[in-house]
Amino acid sequence: MEKSARLPVVVPTRSHSLIELPSSVGRYVEAGLHGAKNTKRGYAADLRSFQDYCEHHQVTHLPADVTTVAGYVSQMADRGLKLATIKRHVAAIAKLHQLAGQSSPTGHEALLVVLNGIARIIGKRQRQAPAFSVLELKQAIRAMDVSKPTGLRDRAVLLLGFAGAFRRSELVALNVEDVELTREALVIHVRHSKTNQYGQDEDKAVFYAPSADFCPVRAVQEWIASLGRNAGPLFTRMSRGAKDKPAQPGVSRLTDQSVNDLVQRHLGLMYTAHSLRASFVTIAVEAGQSNKAIKNQTKQKTDAMIERYARLDDVKRFNAAQYLGL
Questions:
Q1: Pairwise CA distance, residues 290 & 7, whole Å
Q2: Which residues contact 11 (CB under 8 A, 6 or more apart)?
Q3: How far apart are CA 278 and CA 167, in angstroms?
């Protein structure tokens, strides 16, 4: 019996017309439209919120009218949500219309005026995760009990996260086989990241420190040795320890939230997992490192992102007025 031909793939274009492509390209179309998994999950939650708003106000959410979206973003601003959160919701609405082949209201000039007004009123400066100092990091490491597996793991997470300028999503995605020890440095092969969604290999180099207590290379090596395996998740949750025995490395990968909790447990509640990356940039800038050298580690694409990440707003500490020769 002859197999039935699969239907062609219908793709909405930027002009919101529809194009039929062969079914053989279907999986690539799906990957291109949907993007990263984390983005999809975030969009799904945002769209549920938008749909609830539309149902409450008895308006259509797809296709949505520009006045509907304007009302939605205005009520979010009134509730005190951050500008970045509001923009993420707008992006989710745009993606919804793109996937449905509908003209999106999010590019309408009237909505852009509303968003600009929101930005002016609630302010563009968003609360950013502060940067810790090297001294604070060393104090946190000294306080850890590295005679136990949990201490070994936490030390490796903090030192690698800081020295490698890692995002927490990158840290938890690492596998043991992504870690390569060379004579000069520990090379970490990052398979996927926020700026590398196509799976191209990106390498980060982490170097030996003079003191073994604060050396990210030695810390990661000791943690891997405690795992007793050469493959699988690098950073895992800890299994419950038996009576009078410490917790042991489990098999489940650490989550994004676990990294955030770990940072706050050791460095303080004012910091977040994002502080690992922000601290790297801030300290590197303060040390006079070039933007090119910083971007080699952070994998940021523009110098503007270095400026955004650097926490150099202390006017007494970072100010050219100190060097006027008076």
A1: 53
A2: 18, 19, 20, 21, 29, 33
A3: 10
Structural domains in the chain, sorted by start: 10-122 (1.10.150.130), 134-309 (1.10.443.10)
Q: Give, in order, the Cα–Cα distances in Å from 164 to each of 85, 104, 150, 279.
A: 27, 39, 21, 11
Q: How far apart are CA 258 and CA 249, in angstroms?
A: 14
101 φ/ψ angles, rounded to the nearest 5 degrees: 70, 25
Report the run of H or E that residue 277 belongs to, with start and end.
helix 274-286
Tokens at residue 98, please? Answer: 């793109």
Q: Please tell me the distance from the alpha carbon of residue 245 to that of residue 326, in angstroms, as a whole number.
A: 63
Could you tell me which residue, 96 or 264, shows the higher pLDDT? 264
pLDDT at 236: 95
Nearest CA to 74 out of 91, 53, 56 is that of: 53
What pLDDT does residue 198 have? 52
Phi, psi of 318 (to 5 degrees): -120, 90
Using one digit for the tens of pLDDT, what is the confidence trace for 17-49? 444 556 665 565 555 545 545 555 667 788 888
Pairing verdict, β 18-21 and 179-181: unpaired
How far from 69 is each of 174, 220, 253, CA to CA, in Å? 39, 48, 38
Contacts with 5 (C-beta within 8 Å, 6 or more apart), sequence order: 23
